[in-house]
């Protein structure tokens, strides 16, 4: 027996809410377009930059596993493996088996990757500050919904 999807009642939203959501999408898209152009001009792809950023920004350590990177990039495992391979061939990252679990692969930035990321992060600072100014400070009392941000 097939179950029917649950239909939630549609609540009328004021135009101001649509405007706020549209503004958020616009600001995010501007930031992403800036980021895409800046990374390409620096000789790396946007995905390579995102991979390096997730490695450097991983909480509590300067490396990440392929599984963790797949989650952070919201990508399939095999796609991240291929991305890591391309970054490794470009000299941006290195990978090695974990000392504690040989099944786990740890991905780290190389000195070349560190330098590339530092340059790109510097370029992104002012654009990120502009985005944050329009969005306002995050409200820690208001956690994200279970499915992630709603925009």
TrEMBL record:
SMART domains: HTH_MARR. Residues 21-151 form the HTH marR-type domain. Transmembrane segments: none annotated. One of its GO terms (molecular function) is DNA-binding transcription factor activity. GO terms for biological process: response to stress. This is MarR family transcriptional regulator. It comes from Rhodoferax sediminis. The lineage of its organism: Bacteria, Pseudomonadati, Pseudomonadota, Betaproteobacteria, Burkholderiales.
């Amino acid at each position: 027996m097939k179950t029917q999807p649950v239909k939630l009642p549609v609540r009328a939203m004021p135009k101001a809410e649509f405007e706020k959501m549209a503004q958020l999408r616009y600001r995010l898209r501007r930031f992403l377009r800036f980021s895409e152009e800046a990374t390409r001009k620096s000789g790396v792809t946007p995905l390579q930059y995102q991979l390096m950023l997730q490695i450097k920004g991983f909480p509590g350590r300067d490396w990440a596993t392929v599984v963790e990177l797949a989650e952070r990039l919201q990508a399939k495992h095999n796609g991240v493996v291929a991305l890591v391979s391309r970054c490794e061939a470009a000299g941006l990252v290195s990978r090695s088996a974990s000392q504690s679990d040989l099944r786990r692969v740890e991905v780290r930035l190389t000195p070349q990757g560190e330098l590339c990321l530092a340059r790109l992060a510097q370029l992104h600072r002012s654009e990120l500050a502009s985005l944050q100014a329009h969005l306002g400070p995050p409200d820690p009392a208001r956690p994200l919904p279970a499915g992630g941000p709603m925009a």
